[in-house]
Amino acid sequence: MKKDRDYTFLVIVLALIATAVFSAYAMIRSNYNDGKYHVSVIVENSGDERLGSFKAGVETATADYNIQLDFVGTSNFNDLDEEMRVINGAVSDGADAVITELVYSEGTEDIIKEISNKTVLELAFSDADSDVDVEGKYAVISPDNYELGRALGNEVILRHPEDLNSTTIGILAGRCSKESQIEKLEGLRDVLEQKGAKILWQDEYTNPEEERKSLAQIYGEKRVDVMVALDDGELSRAAELSMELPAKPEIYGEGSSIKNIAYLDRGLVESIVVPDYFRMGYQSVEAVSQKITHKLAPMTDETVYYRIINRNNMFDEENQRYLFTVAE
Predict the structure, then answer these.
(1) Is the whole model's pTM more than 0.90, yes or no?
(2) Does the structural domain 145-275+311-320 have CATH classification 3.30.300.350?
(3) Which residues contact 125 (CB under 8 A, 6 or more apart)?
(4) Element (H, E) at 242
């Protein structure tokens, strides 16, 4: 009789454990639509206009691949620890994949290894420090940021072929803790310095909370003939300053938002380099979806293209289609 009671008690305990496990699993999966995989997109300042075309690409792909999307609402990340808390939260909530841009690119080997061991990982916009990924557990999708910087430098040279030595330049480099910005800056400076350009100042930051001079103050202290902006937000900043100036500097930069396309049309900006961020968003989702469903298949890096657009060619039919796509 005692053995029977012990056996019955064991069966009850195992049944309770199984029920608890099933309930926990059901709670985690309750955030999912049936049959859909859960993909979290975590990028700094998720409401920023620079992400408009990237977000449109992500959302289009989630519909095509039957993905449940969580485009996590974020503000600025002060450091990697803050960003990792958000990423780990998404993983704990059951994300099958994470698409992210790391705000600091150096010393990220352990972080990338940690995330890719827990879930499928796609790095967007730029690469970061990592160990050799022979298993293809994660991938990078971005423009060739070094060549993008060179393209901006060449745009300046094209308009100053004879007098670049006497042309003064200011650079709005943006957040230089990101590999994307570092590579753009290297490409730009390599081109300009080779031609003997006079770079009078370079405005950059590593932490968005740090105290910075206003662009009006920087420009007032050292006026320049040309300003080059290395991301969409910095390009808007330059264009908005120029509206207040009687003698306007030439402005070049990376830009994909509707605002910056309008500034180009108005003549506030000479030319822009426009990466195909729509494709980058779409391909990010496609890549993680394929990795989720084919776990043994290695992920591969991809480089997206960009176009150089100015007032002379922005109304070409092909460029119009491109601009309307990237500015969704």
Answers:
(1) no
(2) no
(3) 43, 101, 142, 178, 180, 280
(4) helix 232-242
